[in-house]
Amino acid sequence: MKKVDDLRLNVSLLRRKVPNLTSAARQVGLRPATVSNLCTGKISVGRAEVRTLVALASLADCSLDDLIIRGEKIEMIETKIKTLDLFAPLAKGGTVGLVARTGMGQLVVLAELFYRFKKEVYKTILLMPEGEHQGLNDLVENVEIITNTIDDTYERIANIGGDQDIMFIADRSHVITGRIQQLQENLQGVGIHSVTTFLVDLTGEVVDEDLPYGPLETLWQFDADLVARHRYPAVNPLSSTSSVLEGAHLDQEHFTIQQKALKILRRYRELRSLVNVSGIERIPTSALQTYRRGEKLEAYLTQAFYIAEPFTKKLGQAVSLQDTLNDVKEIMNGAVDSKDVSELEFIGNLQSDHLE
């Protein structure tokens, strides 16, 4: 018998069988947000209503045994970008969707990731989107292979073969037509399972939809408030998630620290709304410590990027997941209570020269 906490949805099967999952879910009375949370693991299969699982199996024309699979270890790709690795890790071989309006920095994040990946063992591929988009040139400069059609993309990836890890970016327009799902199915059909796919929507329309990309392993939601306050990368920890975070896959230390950090950041945001309206003197004394530590934690999660060095004049920083976990734990335990928030902005780890 399968353990309840060791189960997950077969996301790749859902992606293949129900490419238009948003409308399909609504038609059978399912909330797209619920389906999205089940796919990324934000809601565990064990907590899902039976009728929801039965409806999904019906949509995919499969059995419950096909839909619900044992949660084999999902491998995390460490980006050394603090907020991504801590709150919404990249699932190797999965699909990640970026949800952002224009100007929130999603292309900068992708360009930075691909700059880093290019220095590793990954092949990087961009299916060129139509039109002109600010920030696209930075992305193009940091990608090894540029393609112009789905068919061309298939040929290039097939020629690389299944032994090489591949990072691939495509625009949502190819998701809407079903071509991305077909590409993924065709690649799996020839034994290529090593492609990690990044999906973006350069129109910004994606933010108004519940399930804009279909089933995902990882969701990165960008945040207008973080952008307005120049807190980059502006990925919202409270609404971004990943299937790597399911209990069966995540290291216990990571899970414990991440959950505590989310609790502090959530409360900090609530208190910050009060401060913005009435001033900090309105915060209850009992909540002041949480507010201050949340403020410092948010500042620590900012990070200087290598590709932005000519513009920001700040050296790019790569921080290992273990350093991030140690630092976040220190911040939450009060080790930097005496530091000013500005001392934590755009640093690497807490051992950097900036804090000595």
From TrEMBL:
One of its GO terms (molecular function) is ATP binding. It is found in: Membrane. It comes from the Bacteria. Gene3D superfamilies: Bovine Mitochondrial F1-atpase, Atp Synthase Beta Chain, Chain D, domain 3, P-loop containing nucleotide triphosphate hydrolases. GO terms for cellular component: proton-transporting ATP synthase complex. Its main location: membrane. Keywords: ATP synthesis, ATP-binding, CF(1), Ion transport, Membrane, Nucleotide-binding, Translocase, Transport. SUPFAM superfamilies: C-terminal domain of alpha and beta subunits of F1 ATP synthase, P-loop containing nucleoside triphosphate hydrolases. InterPro entries: ATPase_alpha/beta_chains, ATPase_F1/V1_b/a_C, P-loop_NTPase. Belongs to the ATPase alpha/beta chains family. This is F-type H+-transporting ATPase subunit beta. It comes from Pseudogracilibacillus auburnensis.
